[in-house]
Input
Amino acid sequence: MPVIEPVSIEECIEFAENSREDIVEGVYDIKILPEWLDSLPTEVVTLLVTHCDASKSVIARTLDPETGGLETLMKLAEDDEQTVRKAIAANPKTPAEALKKLSF
Output
């Protein structure tokens, strides 16, 4: 599956919105930059977490649970990919309850 690397946050949002079905079906993967995370709409972040392996580690490493990311961090703590779980552990803002999930 091709990994799409948008050059701007606007391009990322537009591609995610226009290609949602293809992303869900696994036709495309999107890789984001960490600094975009706070500006992405919730529905785009949810799409990336659910269907875009190239962005999961970035999100896990960057997401702040205090700004609405707790549920997403908890979900990523159970991800099958070890690199994603390591990124959760490396995020200094990961709460103890998510870290507990990593220990099992």
